What we know:
Distance between the termini of chain B: 23 Å
Helix content of chain B: 10-25%
Radius of gyration of chain A: 16 Å
Shape of chain B: elongated
Structural class of chain A: alpha+beta
Largest interface: A-B, 34 and 34 residues
Radius of gyration of chain B: 18 Å
CATH architecture of chain A: Roll
Strand content of chain A: 35-45%
Oligomer: heterodimer
Number of strands of chain B: 6
CATH topology of chain A: Thiol Ester Dehydrase, Chain A
Number of domains of chain A: 1
CATH class of chain B: Alpha Beta
Amino acid sequence: MAEPARFYFEDVVLHGVLETPAMTVTEAHVALYAGLSHDEPLEPGAVPDILPLCLTVGLGWRVPQPPLAVLAFMGFEWNARAPVRIGDTIHSRSRTAMKRAMREGGVVIEERQVINQRGEVVHDGKFTFLVARRPSA
Amino acid sequence: MTAPARRCFEDIQVGEEYESPGRTVTEADIVLFAGLSGDYNVLHTDAEFMKSSIFGERIAHGLLGLAMQAGLLTRATQAYATLAFVGLRWKFRGPIKIGDTIRLRARVAAKQETDKPDRGLVTLERRVVNQRGEVVQEGETDLLVERRSGR
């Protein structure tokens, strides 16, 4: 059986940009998220601060590129620039800011923006991943 | 009915510590989070594949742990009069596995007045610990909290 395609450290292009499809954030997303996490929005109609981030991670799997062979999600920084409301349609744009080879795989730093239907950057930040090297044939 | 009092910037003291109850992370939590987020990475969804990984089994999404600790804070202390979430800095230190029980330990690390008299910035240090006392996630969050003096 063929292994599913994966995007390895060697495949990561420095400054490469990826844009995801968009998704409308609904009341159902907020209700499911609140039930699961017990984290509540600050006011009615608002979207809990961590939810857009969670949704854009999933959107990141719907791009025309095989999934990154992540060994570990090491950490991230995240900033809220503007509120996200129920009914907003968000997508994300990411750019590889740094890649550094390590003994086991390599570290990749990705800058990510969450953008709403008006083109406003609502959230942004930086993610650090440990990514696998391509297995030798 | 009156709403429960929310604590303003002036009420919060640097050095205050909070500890939440525990929460056991179940398979159902991980399946629900995969469905909600659309993140079906094998790390979280393929039990057979994960048997041969360094973890030996499926692990929770890192962001599920982040979301759960946000919920645990609401059960650890009286709510702040939060106006906005500003940002966070976060590290994932170790896996959360099915059946692990996590709790939040938080501490007010800093308070800062802002240009606007009606609000101040509160920085919370947060550690997510498991049933063995191991820190699995940690970081800092910045919140804008209402100031009574600016009203």
